[in-house]
Write a structure and sequence with these properties.
5-stranded mixed β-sheet; 12 strands; mainly beta; Nucleoside Triphosphate Pyrophosphohydrolase; 3-stranded antiparallel β-sheet; 8% helix; 164 residues; 2 domains
Length: 164
């Protein structure tokens, strides 16, 4: 298992200010870090984006050998030439007292219409570095569908499924 050579004690924070608080939090940080060859870096000005932990689900239907992706609007892609609607895994923030597994089940239903059981989660991966931006990735192996097509929130039935 990977173990970093350097750790938190190898970072010096000179200043940290929250410069934005909204869906995400952005902090302006002045810091130095230890260099692998010895010594310290110059003082760096960096922005740190913080968010809640999240769950992502790669939905795979073993019966049909299909991977399901959903289409969602993403503000970060607004300048992309093909537009801001992106194909992606079902995902959601853990902003409640729910477990990651419970969030995965709820998000599958909300975002794709797929009804899965917690027992259908085949693989649960936890980021070993617990911090405000870690991601739980969950894979569902068997899917019970509300209908034969997975439908996005926009109800776009033409571009809502990506298969292998």
């Amino acid at each position: 298992m990977y173990k970093p050579v350097l750790n938190q004690s190898d970072v010096r924070i000179a200043d940290r200010k929250t410069v934005y608080q909204g869906f995400y939090q952005v902090q302006k940080v002045k810091l130095q870090h230890r260099l692998f060859q010895g010594g310290w870096s110059k003082v760096l000005d960096r922005e740190l984006v913080l968010r809640l932990p999240a769950v992502a689900v790669l939905m795979y239907d073993a019966t049909t050998d299909q991977v399901v992706l959903i289409e969602q609007f993403r503000v970060g892609a607004m300048t992309h030439e093909e537009g801001p609607w992106q194909l992606e895994m079902v995902a959601g923030m853990i902003d409640t007292l729910e477990t990651p597994e419970q969030v995965a089940v709820r998000e599958c239903k909300e975002e794709s219409g797929a009804i899965i059981d917690q027992n259908d989660l085949e693989l649960v991966w936890n980021d070993p570095f617990k911090k405000p931006s870690y991601l739980f990735a969950l894979v569902a192996g068997k899917l019970s569908q509300t209908n034969r097509k997975f439908v996005t929130k926009s109800k776009n039935k033409e571009n809502n499924i990506c298969t292998k």
